[in-house]
Fold each of these.
Amino acid sequence: MVNKDHPLSIGRTIRHAIFFNARNWQSGRPIMDELLQSVNELFAMLTERNVRYTLVGGIAMLQYIQGRNTEDIDIVISITSLRKLPEVTITQKDIFFARGMYRQLQIDFLLTKNPLFAHIQKHHVVELPFAERTIPTATVRGLILLKLYALPSLYRQGDFARVGLYENDIATLMFAYAPPIDDILHELSAFISQPDRDIAQGIVHNLEQRILRFKALRG
C-alpha cells in the first residue's frame, strides 16, 4: 500500500539494490551519493521541461507491494519527449523500447509508439508521492496490463528468471488488491494476438489457483 507518511525514495532504493548486488563489486566500489544526485536531477529535468512520462517497472511496483528490488528506472515516454533529454545517452533502441544512461543511472524507456504503452499513459496513471517529488505512476491495473503483455514474449525467449519475477508481481498485486482480472484480460485483448491472449489467460488461471491454495493453507 502507498505510504504517504514515509514516501519511498527512488534514489535510495536503486542505491541499495546496486550495493547489495555482489556482481557490481567486480567493477569497483558501487556508486552511492552520486546516484542519489542523478535521480534527483533526472526527475527535475522531466518536470522543468514539461515532459509527459509515467513511472513503471520495479520502482512503481514498490509503491504497491513490498520486497521488490530494482537497479534502474522504467519510464513510459514518447519519442518527442525523449528528445527533450539530450543529457541521456541512448545505448540501445528499437521500435518500442530504448535504454539510456544519465551519468551512472540506467533508464529503460517504453515508447508510446507501442499502442499499449500509450494506452497505459492515457488511462492508467496516478500521481503518487515519492521522497524526491510527486511522480505520475502506473496504477495497479496498468502494471498488470504491462506484465501480462510482456509475459508471452518472455516465455518464447526462455527467460525463466523474468517470467518468475513478472508472474510473482502479478500474483502479489492480485492477492493484495483483488483487481477485476477478467476486465483486465478483456482490455489487454485489444493489444495482443489471439495466441498471446490464450497464454495470458492461462497465466492468470494458474495464478488464481496459486492464490486459492495459499488462502486454503493459510486457513
Note: The longest strand covers residues 105-111.
Amino acid sequence: MAVEIKPAGRRGNIARMATLREAGLIAIILALCIAMSFASPHFLTWGNLRAMMMSFSIEGIVVVGMTILLIVGGIDLSVGSVVCFSMVVSGALFLSGLDPWTASLIGIAASALIGAVMGFFVTVVGLNHFITSLAAMVIVRGMCLVVTKGTPLSLFTLPPEFKALGQGSFRDIPYVILIFVMVVAIFDFLLRRATAFRKVFYTGSNEKAAQYSGIKTSHVKFWVTVLCSTLAGLAGVIYMARFGAATPTFGAGMELNIIAAAVIGGASLNGGSGTIFGAILGMALLSVVTSSLILLDVSVYWQDMIKGCILLAAVSIDHFLHSRKF
C-alpha cells in the first residue's frame, strides 16, 4: 500500500521563507542599483544594463538546471566544462563541414549524454553527485583540450543567421534575453504546476518517503541530472554564436557563479526547496555586484574574494534556516 506524503506544513513554511528571501533580494538589488547610479554615471546606461542582462541571461539558463538539481538533492560541478564542451564539439563539427544548426544539436545531445553518464554513476553505481560531477568536470575539460589540441577554434565564418542567435535582437531586445525568458517561464511553470516536477521536491525533501509512496526516485535524479547538462549544452551553443569562437578553457570557474546564484536565491544544498525565480534573482544580484566592482575599478582578485564571501554567507544562511525545525 502506497504511503501518502504530506509535507504541507513544512512546504508551507518553506514557501513563505522563499517569498521573504525573494523580496529581500529584490530590495538588495534595487538598493545596489540606486547606490551605483550615484557612484558611477555609466551604471544605468543602456549599454551597461544590456551587457549585464546578456551576461546573466546565458548563465541564467544554466542556473535553471542547477536549481532543479539542487532541489532534488544533487549538485553539478561540471557545468562550466559542459558549456565549453558543447561549444567545442559544435564548433569542431562546423569546421569539419556540418551546418551550424545540426552541429549545435549534436553538441547539445553530447552534453545530455554527459549528464546521462553522471546520472548512471549516481543512480546505478551509487556514487554521490559531488564526486561524480567533480570527476566529470576534469574529464570533460580534458576532452575539450583533446578536441581542440589546446588551441581556440575560430568560428568567424559562422553564417549571420546563426550568429544572430547570440548577437541579434528583436526590436532592440537581444534574442539571448528572449530565449532566457522563455526557458525560465517554461521551467518555472513546470516546477510549480506539473505533477512530474512535483516529484523533484518530494525526492529532495525525503527520498525514503518518496520511494514508499511509489516514486521512482532514481529515475527522477537521473533525468534531472540529464536536464542540467542539456541546459548547459544549450548555453554553450549560445555562447558560441555570441563570440564566434570556441575556447577550450572557457567556463572555468563558472560553476561557482551558478551554484552561488541558486543558493543565494533559496535553493537548499540539502535538497527539497528552491525556486527558479529566486535563483534568477541570485544571478541578477551577482551580475549587479560584478558590474559594480568593474565600474569602481576594483581588482579582479578582489572580485573573486567578494563573490566567494557572498557564497559563504548564502550557504551559512541556508544552513541556519534548515537546521531549525519547520
Note: The chain is about 75% helix and 0% strand.
Amino acid sequence: MAEDEHGGELRTATSSERTVSRGTALLPTDGFQNPGLPEHRPRVTDTDPRAAKRVERFIIFLFWLSFAATVFTVAAYFIWPIDREDITSVRANNMFLGLGIALSMMTIGIGAVMWSKYLMKDHEMVESRHKTEGSPATRARAVEVFQQANEESGFGRRTLLRNSLIGAVLALPIPGIVLFRDLYNGNNPAPVDLLHETMWDEGVRLVRDPIGTPIKASDVTIGSVFHVIPDGLIDLEHHMLEEKAKAVVLLMRLPEERLKEEEHRKSWSYNGIVAYSKVCTHVGCPVALYEQQTHHLLCPCHQSQFDVTEHCKVIFGPAGRPLPQLPITVDGEGYLVAQSDFLEPVGPSFWERKHDYNV
C-alpha cells in the first residue's frame, strides 16, 4: 500500500472497478460484451406474397427490356450507319449504339440487384473462417452450400425469372459480334489499298497546311520545314479528315552534298528539297520534330527517329520501316509539284500487306 499526500492509503483498483466516465455512462475498459445480432426485421416481400410477385414481374420486365435494348443496338447499327461521305454520321451511330448497350447492361444489373435484395432468402448468419483444403468433407459441404443457395435464391424454382435473366445475358454479346463482324466486308477495300492511294498525283502542287498557299522551290531555305498537303484538299468537305490523315507531308531542304540518295531515287528530290510522309510507320503518330543540325526527324509518341539524309531510314525506336518518300519536282512557274502518288503505303507497318513494294 502507498500513502497519498494527506497520509491516506492508496490501493490498486480491481479490473471490475476500472471504468471510464463518459457523461453519465460508465463503460468498462477491459472489453465489452458481444451484443449479438440485431432482431431480424422481415421485408415486405417476405410477409406479402403479392408484393413479392410484383417485384418478380418488375425484374422480369427489366430482363426483357435488356433483351429489347440489345436488339435495338443491333438495329441501330444499320439504321444509323457511319457514312464515309459524311463524318457527322459518326455522332448518331455512336449515340444510339451507346444508349442501347448502356440500357441493356444497366437493366440486367438493376434486375440482378433487386432479385438478391427482395426475393432471395433474407437471414443473418455467422460463418467461421477455416483453412481451404480441398478435403472430401469440404467438397461435400460446398455442394450442400450450392444446393442451399439454389433453394434460397429461387434460381431453380422461379423458371420464368431465371430464363429471362439467361436470355438477356446471352443476348448481351450480340451487338459486339455484329460490330466486329462488320469490320470485315468483302466489298470494302483492304486497308493496304486505302493507304496506298492518296490525293497526291502527277502535277498536284504542294501547298502549306492549313492555309493552302502554293510553295515555290525558292521559298524553301536550308534548314526550314514546311507542313504540306496536296492542293485541293481544303476544298473537300466530307473526305478532308480522311484524306489529310493519309496525305500530310513534311518538306525540308538540305545541302545537296548531305543527301545519300539511291540511284533510282535521285530524281525524287529537287535541289536538296525532299518530301516525306508525316505519318509514323510505327502506329501512325505525326512525325513533326525536325533536328536541323542532325537532319533527323523525331516521332514524339514513341521516340522513333528517321535520318532524312538517307531516305528517312529508321535509326532509333520501334518504327519498322522508313517514312515513305513523295517524289517531287517543279512546274513551269517554279512551284513544287508531285511527280506521282507515294509508291508505297503510308502509315503503320502493322497493317496486313498483300503487295510487295521494292522501292
Note: The first strand starts at residue 2 and ends at 3.
